[in-house]
Each structure stands twice: as structure tokens, then as C-alpha cells.
Fold each of these.
Amino acid sequence: MLQDSFGRVHDYLRISLTDHCNFRCTYCMPQEEMEWMPQSKLMSKEEILTLAETFVGLGVKKIRLTGGEPLVRKEFPEILERLAAFPVELTLTTNGVLIHKHIEVLKKAGVRSVNVSLDTLNREKFLKLTRRDQFDRVWENMLLLLREGFRVKVNAVALHGLIEEEICDFVAMTERLPIHMRFIEFMPFAGNHWQSKKVVTAAQMLDLVKEKYEIVKLEDKKHDTAKKYKVPGFEGTFAFITTMSENFCAGCNRIRLTADGKIKNCLFGKEELDLLIALRRGENVEEIIRLSISRKHKALGGQFDPDYLKANPEAIENRSMIKIGG
Ligand code: SAM
Ligand code: SF4
């Protein structure tokens, strides 16, 4: 069991399969020239499986594959199928653009739930945000997942100037589609030019939704990062991920493994320990994992004030989101 000094048990691992991506989302990737990790520094397929097995032996019960874009990794189908042999719930966060090529392997591996990112319902804005003209493909793939019986969560980063106009359209989408919309408060990472004034909080978004809809609060579970709501009679639900305005660190059970094999005990943590080098040297990886978890900070990687209005992005040391694995 991986328990930290605050009594939190860590049983949910997010593995980044690559730092590469076929989109260029402005809030995720530094606008400055992005340097990709060299192949030799990335975990090989076998190394991913060995490390995953070690985590499972330490009590991990759920594994999410992410990136970068996990589906751009050529070995994705094989990695997924082999992870499916472990006694874990498997899931995926994707920009959705390659989903149609992987439906069968997702089913075969027993994946039940997929998170698809979609920040706008407007084709032109989508192009501007992702720098790729792929709105239709993502939309079609989201519908494909629903038709194929997957539980679909749709992640939208709440971008100031955009979400205010679109939040009710997203909620309207849940009338006929059984999707679970999740609005994520904009978070600070290296190179994404975060400022507190760019954050649209859950409370602000909720007010906008309430102007148009009667809503009910749904029950949230212990480790849930999202605060869930529903318009009565609608097929789907919507939720807010309130990392900035009301963090959920007290119930955190998440560990991250970056594509270059570093363990991060927190999304915002600057301390990383190198599992890949240890594995390649034949050292005791379990001990390093335990050490990392034991050093976890109480909240927000110990890097900024829980009052996000006081957070200083210049003082936060971290990677860009694309290199962490969200
Ligand atoms: N490429 C995949 C995708 O886009 O879903 C997986 C990786 S992406 C880094 C994981 C999630 O992080 C996406 O839902 C994305 O919108 C979110 N994300 C990226 N940068 C963010 C930021 N600065 N604040 C909040 N969420 C962010
Ligand atoms: Fe790529 Fe996902 Fe980041 Fe967009 S949010 S650049 S799709 S990793």
C-alpha cells in the first residue's frame, strides 16, 4: 500500500505514454519552440509494463493512459492489451482525434470509460485553440464512443473569454447525449502564461448555468476531483474541476509517471524521482516509489497558495502540462 504522511492511500496511476501530440493546444504546450524528449530517454514498451507491474504490486488499482496524446504512440494497442492482463481498471484521456482507429482494442482491453478533451463547440475557435482543423473528427469520435457503449467524460478547460459564451451550449449538449461534461479551471504550468485573472471559477460558471437552467447537485465520491450537477430530465451530467478555487488535495490518491520515467507525487510538484534510470541500473524501484509518496506535500505540491489569487506563476517550478501527463 502506498500511503503518504497525511494518511492518503495512493492507488491511481496516470502513465504518460509520450510527450508528443498531434494538437498544439495553447494552454498546454509552450508557444516557444517545444523540445521533444529524445527517444532514448523515453520509457520503452517493456519498461512501461515493468514499472506498471511494480505499481500494481504496491496497490495501484486504476491506471489512466495519457500524454501528450497517448494515441500517437505506435505501440499504444500493444501496451493497452498487455496492461489489461493486470487486475486494474484501465482508462484513457485523449484529444479524441484518433479514437476511430482504436475502438476495437479499447473494447478488447475492457476499457469502459474514456475522457475526451473538447474546449469549444465552435469549429473556428477549435482551430485557433488546438492549431488543428479537427473539430468534426473529434465530435464524430465522441459520438462513436457513445454508440459503442463507452462512458464518455468530456473535458473542457474553462478559458476566460470562451467558456462564458459556451458553457450553456455545453450543458445543453447533455440534454440528449449521456455525456459527463467537466469544466476544468485553468491551471498554471510552465510556458502557459497563466494569470489569476484568466481563471474562471466554478462558482462563476455555476452562476451562468443557473441563469438558464434549474439544476440539482449530485453526490460526489471520496476521491472525485469533479463536483457534479445535472439538469433534471437531461441524459448527461456536468461538473467542475475546482483545482484553483477549491482544491481537492485532501482526498488525493493519484501518482504520475512521466513519459521519461519520472515519478511525480503531485501534478504541481517540482520534486521528481527517476524510476527509469533506477530500473535500467537494476536498482530497487519500489523503494524509490515509496520515498516519493512519503515526501508528498499536503496540497498543490507545496508550490502555491490555496488562495489562487495569491499564486505567483513565476515562482512555480514545474514542467509544461504536455510533458507531465494530465
Ligand atoms: N492529449 C490528451 C488530451 O488532450 O486529452 C491527454 C493529455 S492532456 C495534457 C490532459 C488534460 O489536461 C486535457 O483534458 C487538457 O485539456 C488538460 N489541460 C492541459 N493544460 C491544462 C491547463 N493549463 N489547465 C487545465 N487543464 C489543462
Ligand atoms: Fe495535446 Fe492534449 Fe495538450 Fe492539447 S491538451 S496539446 S491535445 S496533450
Note: The CA atoms of residues 121 and 169 lie 8 Å apart.
Amino acid sequence: MKVFIVHAHPERRSLNGALTDIAVETLTGAGHAVRVSDLYAMGWNSAVGADDFGDAVSSPLDVVHDSGRAYGTGVLSADIRAEQEKLKWADTVILQFPLWWYSMPAILKGWVDRVFTYGFGYGVGEHNETRYGDRFGDGALKGKRAMLSLTVGGPESHYSDRGINGPIDDLLYPIQHGILYHPGMEVLPPFVLYRTVRMSAEVFADAAEQWKKRLLTLEDTDPIPYRRQNDGDYEMPSLRLREGLEIPGRSGFGLHTAG
Ligand code: FAD
């Protein structure tokens, strides 16, 4: 595999840092190629701005179309092009982060905002009455696989079906479906560690073993069976799931997973 890890934690000696180190060591030890973007160490700029788009910028700024023109003409700023090149190189992408305010740290969201440009992350393919682009199963990153690896402060029960924070699958849906599946990547089930604010050495050792096992079985892991946009499950042009396709007991985000 060619694995690209995007690491988002301000302290390299953190639990998240340890998980990234384990991933690099385990994957390279198994003969895979690994590249890491350590966003805080790189001083990643997470704010979209006119400087991103070179001479493709318009006035007033039009982030959607300026980003598409800049991508198409190769004038995106060098830091964005470098990240897009790593994504093109990889067949497997891992996002490593702590759950902060029920989501990813802002620096990682800013990485997505700037790197997943029009023509690359979205705005791909024909848009008409019968087809709304190449998304959710198709797209520029089709053929790649992605996975979240995250650490969570609270215990697992808080993130279970009746847990007060809502099910973890729901919290992660905007990232897994809205960001990773949207440009065509298959999404593997996440690796989630709970109750991580304080971990004993024993709990850490157990977590490290679980993580190594996940890493060494990535190639055999089935992706989450999200429904493909362009395979007939959705009515056009509304893109509502066709009546009768829902799995009994499923609602909300769960409607968009088959099987
Ligand atoms: P660290 O603080 O680095 O470490 C955690 C524990 O692991 C420590 O006990 C440490 O000693 C141990 N450890 C670390 N590395 C090693 C190692 N190499 N060997 C042995 N032991 C090690 N939680 C929620 O549940 N929901 C939220 O919405 C949420 N929002 C947050 C928002 C903010 C802004 C912040 C700061 C925290 C939030 N949290 C939330 C808690 C957060 O998810 C956890 O603090 C985080 O996931 C822990 O990961 P870390 O890498 O920062 O851990």
C-alpha cells in the first residue's frame, strides 16, 4: 500500500502522536510506503484566501470557481498542490486526530477546505437533470480508501445508540460520507479509542496492539457500504433515497448505508 497519514495534533508526544508513530513503524515494517503530513509541525495555514489561487483569482473572490480555475491551470499555491500530490500518490489515506468539540480540530478542517478544491474534491463530472456530478462512489479520488483514526475523551457508552452525545457513526458521518466518500474514496470503519484523557500504561499497551492489528488488516477490511449516488438508489433530480430501499429500523444518516 501507499499510505498517506494526515496528522492533526499540536503535541508530537501526545497519544495521537504515538498512534501516528505506531502507524509509520507498523506499515513500513510490513513493506508499505508511508508519507505523513503533520499539520501543526508544517505550520499549515487553515484559512482559505485569495493567495491560494494565483492569477486565477477573481474580484470579488469566488472561492468555488477560483479554486477550480486555479486547480485546472496548475496555479494553486504550492502548499495545496503538495497535499493534492500526496493524495494522488496514495492508495490509502488515514486521518489521525483527537475528537474536539464533536469533530476534527480546525486545522484539519482547514486542510480539507483548502486541499479539496473544486475540480478535485467536488465539482467533478456532468451536472444536469439526470446526473448531479461524479460524487459518492465516483469522483477524482475514486479507487482510493480512507480511514479515520481518532481519540475520544468520553466513554464509549456516551457515543452509543442511546448515548447522550449521539452515536459515533452519526458524528463522523459529515467527515466519512461528506468529505471522504464525496470525492469517491471508499471509507473503512473508523479506529476509535474512547476514554483517552487519562490512559494507564496497560490500557495504552492494549490500544497500541489493537491499532497495529487494524493497520495490518487494512487491505482485507471491507469499506462501509455507503450507497452510490449514480447507481439508481436515488431519485433524480431530488437525490432522495427511493421509497422502499430503506432497511427496517434505519433512519437519518443510516438511510445512506446499504446492507
Ligand atoms: P494525550 O493528552 O496526549 O494523552 C492521553 C493519555 O494517553 C494520557 O494519560 C497520556 O499519558 C497517555 N499517553 C499518551 N501517549 C502515550 C504513550 N506514548 N505511552 C503511554 N501512554 C500515553 N472529548 C470528547 O469526548 N468529546 C469532545 O467533543 C471533546 N472535545 C474536546 C475539545 C477540545 C478543545 C479538547 C482539548 C479536548 C476535547 N475532548 C473531547 C477530549 C479529547 O478528545 C481528548 O483529550 C483527546 O482525544 C486525547 O488525545 P491526545 O492525543 O490529546 O491525548
Note: DSSP finds seven helices and six strands in the chain.
